[in-house]
Amino acid sequence: MGSMMFCTVDIVPSNIFHVVNITVQTIWNKTGVLKMKIKVELFTILKKYDKGKILENHSVILDEGTNLLGLTRYLEIPDRVGIIFLVNQFPKDKEYVLKEGDEVKLYSLICGG
């Protein structure tokens, strides 16, 4: 089984080169399933589904292999709500399997004005 790592990089300038400090963390859930971190932003009427599940830096930690439909279920967005998914600025189907570092934006098909 592969490992999933989250890295934090600190770059400290010096006279000739940059010193890079890397902190690596592997996240597992209680059953030993690898986790991944993605960035999520909700727009229009979907903002109300944040409910504290999206961290301050707009990130969510999910089981590796979760698709966009799984993300909507994690956020408890009802299936009847029409959603447009953008992943890394490209439209994707709800069956798209998310990857570590993906940036996901969710828009409702219906919004007020």
What's a quick, concise take on this entry?
By secondary structure, the protein is mainly beta. The protein has a domain of 77 residues: Beta-grasp domain (Ubiquitin-like (UB roll)). 6% of the residues lie in helices and 38% in strands.
Write a structural description.
- This protein has 113 residues and is mainly beta.
- The protein has a domain at 32-108: Ubiquitin-like (UB roll) (Roll).
- Helix content is 6%, strand content 38%.
- It starts with 5 loop residues before the first strand and ends in a 5-residue tail after the last strand.
* Overall 3D form: globular
The overall average pLDDT, rounded, is 78
Largest sheet: 5 strands, mixed
Which structural class do you get from the secondary structure elements?
A: mainly beta
As a percent range, the share of helical residues equals under 10%
CATH architecture of the domain at 32-108: Roll
Q: What is the percentage of strand-forming residues? A: 35-45%
State the fourth-level CATH superfamily of the domain at 32-108. Answer: Beta-grasp domain
CATH topology of the domain at 32-108: Ubiquitin-like (UB roll)
Order of helices and strands: EEEEHEEE
